[in-house]
């Protein structure tokens, strides 16, 4: 699994012109799922995400986690994170998991993040045409691949 983590002061997702979810201070996550992913990836990533110290303390040092600040999460599925751009100019998405594999893993990630965070999170809709808005705070953007834990 690949996750793009963006520290935000606010974020929202619209589907068909209607707001599906919105958050204030927290993290907007773009999640890419591949066939090789499983519950171990979900468990590791969800713990990593909610405990990552990327929010400022009183001295302005990134020393607080999402849990420390009681922040929120907006999770968006994004198969294009697994794009291969090695050949030609049209990306290939062959590594991205098909919906029958990806949807249950996406739903499991939602449950895992909610469990780790101790509250509901905002989500997009798997496979929908979504319009995501955010104010990237910092900016702080971090990419984490569960296959590169070391």
TrEMBL record:
GO terms for cellular component: cytoplasm. Gene3D superfamilies: D-tyrosyl-tRNA(Tyr) deacylase. InterPro entries: Daa-tRNA_deacyls_DTD (IPR003732), DTD-like_sf (IPR023509). Homodimer. Belongs to the DTD family. An aminoacyl-tRNA editing enzyme that deacylates mischarged D-aminoacyl-tRNAs. Also deacylates mischarged glycyl-tRNA(Ala), protecting cells against glycine mischarging by AlaRS. Acts via tRNA-based rather than protein-based catalysis; rejects L-amino acids rather than detecting D-amino acids in the active site. By recycling D-aminoacyl-tRNA to D-amino acids and free tRNA molecules, this enzyme counteracts the toxicity associated with the formation of D-aminoacyl-tRNA entities in vivo and helps enforce protein L-homochirality. This is D-aminoacyl-tRNA deacylase. It comes from Algoriphagus faecimaris. The gene is dtd.
């Amino acid at each position: 699994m690949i996750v793009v983590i963006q520290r935000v002061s606010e974020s929202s997702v619209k589907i068909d012109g209607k707001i599906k979810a919105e958050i204030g201070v927290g993290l907007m996550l773009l999640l890419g799922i591949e066939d090789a992913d499983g519950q171990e990836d979900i468990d590791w990533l969800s713990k990593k995400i909610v405990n990552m110290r990327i929010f400022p303390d009183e001295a302005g040092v990134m020393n607080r986690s999402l849990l420390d600040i009681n922040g929120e999460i907006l999770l968006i599925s994004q198969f294009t994170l697994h794009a291969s751009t090695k050949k030609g100019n049209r990306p290939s998405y062959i590594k991205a998991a098909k919906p029958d594999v990806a949807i249950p893993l996406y739903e499991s990630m939602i449950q895992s993040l909610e469990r780790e965070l101790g509250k509901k999170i905002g989500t997009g809709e798997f496979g929908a045409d979504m319009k995501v808005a955010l104010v990237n705070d910092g900016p702080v953007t971090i990419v984490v691949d569960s296959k590169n834990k070391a």
